[in-house]
Amino acid sequence: MQHGDIVHAELNRYLSVSTRFITGYGLFELKKMVRDHALGMMSKDVSKDLFGNTNLYYIQICALVEGLDVLGADPIDDLPGLKQVLDAATKKNDVLLSMIHKVMSLSRAFLFRQLDEAMLEANNLSDIVLAKKLPPRPIVLFGLYFEGLISFQFARQLKDSAKWTAKGKAILDIFKGCSENCPWNWENKMLILEAERAAILGKDHEAESWYIRSIRSAKEHRFIHEQGIASELAGMFFYERGLQQKASLFLKHSIDCYNEWGALAVSKVRDSLLDRLCVSFLYAIPINGVSSPFIPPSELKSSLEGHSVQIFCNSSSRMKQWSPFSYQPNAHRRNGTHLIENFVIISGYVKMV
Fold first, then answer.
1. What are phi and psi of 346, to 5 degrees?
2. Sequence-distant (≥ 6) Cβ neighbours of residue 37 within 8 angstroms
3. Which of 238, 316, 329, 336 is the 20 to 30 A CA-CA neighbour of 180?
4. Omega before 75 within 30 of 0, i.e. cis
């Protein structure tokens, strides 16, 4: 084969890797495929640029499957680690590799819940795309998707809500155009961004509809990872509105989707999140004997303090098994009970003895 034939063959394999990653191909199988591809390029000594880009995909897959500790490893399974890849890109001023690194950084920040303004500013893609300095390739749009989700998260959490809502809206408008041209690939992303924006604007009824439609669209179009993301955000939406039981169903479904995708490290983070939000089945019978479907932690403390009670509490994060035990004020965590600033949040229900 001629050298050009080899380069084009490797380019086709690289584009196949990129497409499979973006569309939520199973990470276990994709990990082996990408590693074999990268090692093959090393042995052929062709296209150093493609090798660096392929290596970034491998590092990202390892992080999703094994956890963020792999980002500091060098080498990773006989391939260069992140620092070595980025150092080489800096020396060559490799714009494409730097752009892919921004995409991977944005997706990791969202999936592992490591969000901060400095990270988003350092990995800003939307301003470059809107200024038409970067063509909206599929991998760029994949990064924009996460940048939009992060922007709406910041609109909830930070003081400058209008700034982040406007950024999210600008990214949403890009996906509206994409969805019109190719609904199979972009509809579910547009719908989840619509849902997040509606939730911020207080349009809860519209938001709920957008969330459900996004989950259905991702399922119909076989984007298992984005079905997980939409389910997670829907769960948080319902949780914030006091619908804990409904929230837990969506959050557990998101964990199932991440596991099916192969992102075990991501699902582990969500398991921890579900544990922290384990008020889904909290039912309390206060002193007056009136049943209450949910008592906020401060009220729960005042209702139980000084009284002998029995707590029927979930002993697993998946809420399948229940076990009774006695409540002691200011006790350490036990079973599903969490001590937070001298009061407890209990997954289960309490009964006055």
1. -120, 130
2. 10, 13, 14, 17, 54
3. 238
4. yes
Query: Which pLDDT score, from 0 to 100, does residue 108 have?
Result: 96
* Adjacent-strand bridge partners of 349: 283, 312
- Per mean pLDDT, which range of 111-115, 221-225, 273-277 is the poorest? 273-277
pLDDT digits (tens, 9 = 90+) for 59-99: 999 999 999 999 998 899 999 999 999 998 888 888 889 99
Q: Which two tokens stand for residue 143?
A: 């990064």
Q: In terms of C-beta distances under 8 Å and separation of at least 24 residues, what long-range contacts does 297-301 make, across chains too?
A: 297/340, 297/343, 297/344, 297/345, 298/343, 300/343, 300/344, 300/345, 300/346, 300/350, 301/329, 301/342, 301/343, 301/344
27 pLDDT exceeds 90? Answer: yes
Rounded distance, CA 150 to CA 160, Å?
Answer: 14
Specify the pLDDT at position 100: 94
Beta bridge partners of 343: 340
The dihedrals phi and psi of 324, each to the nearest 5 degrees, come to -85, 145
3 state SS for 29-51: HHHHHHHHHHHHHHHHCCCHHHH
Which neighbouring-strand residues pair with 325? 311
Alpha carbon separation from 91 to 56, 79, 327 (Å, rounded): 16, 19, 61
Is residue 296 pLDDT above 80, yes or no? no
Report the pLDDT value the prediction gives residue 262, as an integer from 0 to 100. Answer: 97
Instruction: Check if the beta carbon of residue 311 is closer than 8 Å to that of residue 269.
Output: no
Which residue bears the tokens 């921004």? Answer: 102
pTM: 0.78
Residue-level pLDDT at 157: 83
Q: How confident is the model at residue 231 (pLDDT cuts 50, 70, 90)?
A: very high
